[in-house]
Amino acid sequence: MIIAFFDFDGTITHKDTLWEIIKFHRGRAAMYAGVVQLAPAFIRYFLKMMPAQELKEQVLGYFFADMPVAEFTAGCEKFSRERLPALIRPLALTAIRKHQQQGHHVVVVTASAQDWVASWCRRENIVCLGTRLEVKNKVITGKIQGLNCNGEEKVNRIRQAYHLENFQEIYAYGDTKGDRPMLALAQHTGYKPFRSM
């Protein structure tokens, strides 16, 4: 058996989907207003005074906290159908389908929330391992359940889902330092691939 792991944002897509989903749910003006309100958090993060997960939770909390999960899920499904296809790199989709045609098992491993990535993955017959958002009393809290699926956590999530010793070959594709631990699992890697289109 052969398995191929793909990062999502920046590898399969040409934009960060967190900001795209915010814009889709809340509108462009509200997104920019939120960025202004969140400026102190961004400054603390860039000064290395705040970890990435805390910043992400502040962003998610600002835009989505207290949203009913049914409303959030419906919006994510609509985003996945109507907006996400235009963000996909054609060469990435070609590579995915080539793996599938060869009978390889294809998995997206993403720091983005599964809520807006998994439905696209299902339509493409791809497994999705992503960041999980906390839900309490049927509303989004803005917190992340467990750890953000990035860096070493990508490897942890992969190992929870798969016995890698069962695979003869492993492929992995990514575009940031947060993908390097995942790339280290593979015999065949692509770093910042699919960029010509």
Structural description of this entry:
This protein has 197 residues and is of the alpha/beta class. The chain has one domain: Rossmann fold. It is built from 9 helices and 6 strands, in the order βααααααβαββαβαβ. It has a 6-stranded mixed beta sheet with strand order 4-3-2-1-5-6. Helix 5 crosses helix 7. The model has no long low-confidence stretch (mean pLDDT 96). It comes from Chitinophaga eiseniae. GO terms for molecular function: hydrolase activity. Keywords: Hydrolase.
Count of folded domains: 1
- Helical content class: 40-55%
From the N-terminal CA to the C-terminal CA, the straight-line distance is 30 Å
Supply the helix-strand structural class.
Answer: alpha/beta
**Total of helices:** 9
Q: Which series of helices and strands comes N to C?
A: EHHHHHHEHEEHEHE
Count the E strands: 6
Largest sheet: 6 strands, mixed
CATH secondary-structure class: Alpha Beta
InterPro entries: HAD-like_SerB (IPR050582), HAD-like_sf (IPR036412), HAD_hydro_SerB1 (IPR006385), HAD_sf (IPR023214)
GO molecular function: hydrolase activity
Keywords: Hydrolase
Protein name: HAD-IB family hydrolase
